[in-house]
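Here we describe the complex-level prediction in full. Unlike the single-chain runs in Section 2.1, the two entities below were treated as one system.
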Amino acid sequence: MKTGDEMKIIREVSNQAEYFYADAVKLGNHAAHALKASHRSQMTSLETIAESTLKTSDVLDYVKKQTARFPYWRQGFPQHSKPDEGFGERLKNYLEGELAKRRDSICSTRLGIGDKTEADQQERRRIHLLLMRQFIRQMVVQYEYEVSTGSKKRES
Amino acid sequence: MLSTEQMRKLSLLSDTVLYPEAVAFIGRLVREERCSPLPTSQVMGLLNVAYASRYTELHEFVKHQRDRNWPESRSDIKLFYTELEKFLTAMQKRRLRDEFHLVEGAPNTSGGRQEVDELMASLAHDFIQHLVAENSVLAATQADEKAKERANRRR
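The structure predicted for the assembly as a whole is:
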């Protein structure tokens, strides 16, 4: 991988982060509603896994395990267009579906990365993981903001 | 000891092949074969063996579970292990070389057999990890649906 190519990838991932920021805020608000401040460690763990793993499937497996284990990960959000859709399912669908679409779009139209050779597939997988990390970072920041301002509002 | 190239390829396979196949595997058993998701005790047992054992031991465990004399009420578990054994055998006999192109060493040597064992352990471990994650979501969803039904009946 040449330095110029790597810079292009970083720039494209940053651009995408601008586009999906509004979605990350929505998911962060859903997380705050479902997990409250008391389950903050679960958001931190999700971020840690996303930052440390080299596999997108590790992140998806973690989301599934938490969704199965804790009822609050399955809690809906009244302000969501599908109010019964649980937080975990919504997050998994976004990471798996929407971000994969964005990866395919930037790879084929902006970065000229195909999907036939193994090297291309590895690169697409890495870009998907970079998008996931970026999205989760934004979502966790919004979650932190929402639980802290939410508790301040309640106090006042 | 697997090479860096093999490890990279294994990660790619885990994300692009094993993950969707594990989701489809357990989904087919639950939705088409009308099986219950695997109970927690079985999940924990399978995961422990997958994490701790060599592939030959994991394969023996799966065969042992398949061949146990399960009562009729637990025939779902027998079917699960029957299908898992078929999946793993096909992977070792055919897909490892012909589809995944993972084997670097010469076959029928002790080094070659060890390489296959290590590759299969990694592939089986990841497949089972994905399987267990999907299974847990299906089990929780079913439990929520049953709880909702009970609550509706009480009204």
